[in-house]
Amino acid sequence: MLSDRLALAFPVFAVALLTALSFWLDAVVRTADPRDAAVRHDPDFIVDNFTARQTGPEGLLVHTLRAQRMTHYLDDDTSHLEKPYLVHVTAKGLEVTAKADRAQLSGDGQSLRLSGNVRMTRAPVAGQSELVLLTESLLVNPDRNFARTDEPVVIRNATSRTDAVGLEFDYDTRQLDLLQDVRTTWQSPSARP
Q: So what's the architecture of 36-191 in CATH?
């Protein structure tokens, strides 16, 4: 008789135990409220060996952006790039490249903030030598052919080195405005290291 009662009680005990276990598992693995996902700064996708190209209305390549890794965040719609490399060709055919340790691309793609060992290079053009710009942070607006920084910057070409703090560079018109503390050293091309 005792064994009959135990035999009848065992399934009830097993169901009760499984129910309790189910509630516990649900509480442990419950996913976060979807509304919280927009608040957290978690990546929604990651791309290794990232490459993006943009063409103009005529179908000609305007710029190419490459990175070792691109991580996109949903909460602020930004993309964080590791070892970014931007190649931009202006409407006048002038090639400008920029590279850095990392960058942040805005959700609308209108601004690229490069940081860490930033190097922007303007190819030689119309009797002017290559221009190299070195800084730690640079905001680039590729669609406007414009770059800006408030950080210290070094600008080199074949005959000079200029140190300044802050600049604005319209690389389509080749206008370069240095904002403050400008010092230039002129040297012959053969004396340059």
A: Sandwich (2.60)
